[in-house]
Backbone:
């Protein structure tokens, strides 16, 4: 289990790192907001312990930014501030739990364990079906290791399907997410689904973007499917 600590108080960061390493976690520390954001984005952590008052970029903004990028790593916020407002605000920006300083180390470890347990059922960092992989953090797409260039809209459309692989997503759900400004024009979806298939399926001889007649579309792992 890999843990990122974003904390500018070096003594606290060092003692947390020491304690969590002894518990068997692999621990990295970032000492300011921008470094923390960079680490959380680019490395695959199982959880982030995040201080709120940080140089460069505060914890609220860091957390909000990660969530906007689709990064769902569980986040436990630590802060010297105390009060319902701060707690609500931290949870609003997408943090999963909150602990006010000074805290008991035992409580921290218990909360972290609970987060890690929940985290394993959360959305994965990478989305997709079979060998078609989407990375919401970098908004890139690849099939069997080959990168595929998608427009922003195509990426969003594929992401809507990839968040629920194997499930039928209705046209109106797709419109709602991918064309919020034009949600009553289902022809947009059909045209863009065709364009998407020309990029992610046809060149690979695949049919992973499937039409579900009368309801919508679904993204499947079609590696085991064979044409009759
Ligand atoms: Ca601080």
Residues:
């Amino acid at each position: 289990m890999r843990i990122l600590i974003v904390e500018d108080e070096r003594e606290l960061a060092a003692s947390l790192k020491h304690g969590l390493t002894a518990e068997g976690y692999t621990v990295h520390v970032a000492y300011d907001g921008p470094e923390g954001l960079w680490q959380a984005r680019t490395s695959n952590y199982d959880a982030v312990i995040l201080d709120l008052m940080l140089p460069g970029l505060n914890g609220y903004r860091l957390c909000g930014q990660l969530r906007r990028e689709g990064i769902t790593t569980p986040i436990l916020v630590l802060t010297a501030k105390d009060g319902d407002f701060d707690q609500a605000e931290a949870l609003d920006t997408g943090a999963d739990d909150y602990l006010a300083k000074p805290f008991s180390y035992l409580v921290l470890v218990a909360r972290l364990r609970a987060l890690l347990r929940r985290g394993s059922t959360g959305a994965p960092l990478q989305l997709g079906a079979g060998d078609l992989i989407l990375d919401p953090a970098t908004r890139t797409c690849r099939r069997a290791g080959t990168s595929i260039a998608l427009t922003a809209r195509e990426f969003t459309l594929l992401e809507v399907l990839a968040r629920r692989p194997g499930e039928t997503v209705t046209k109106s759900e797709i419109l709602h997410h991918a064309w919020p400004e034009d949600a009553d024009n289902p022809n947009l979806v059909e045209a863009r689904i065709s364009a998407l298939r020309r990029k992610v399926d046809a060149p690979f001889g695949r049919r992973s973007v499937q039409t579900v007649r009368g309801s919508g579309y679904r993204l499947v792992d079609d590696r085991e499917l064979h044409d009759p």
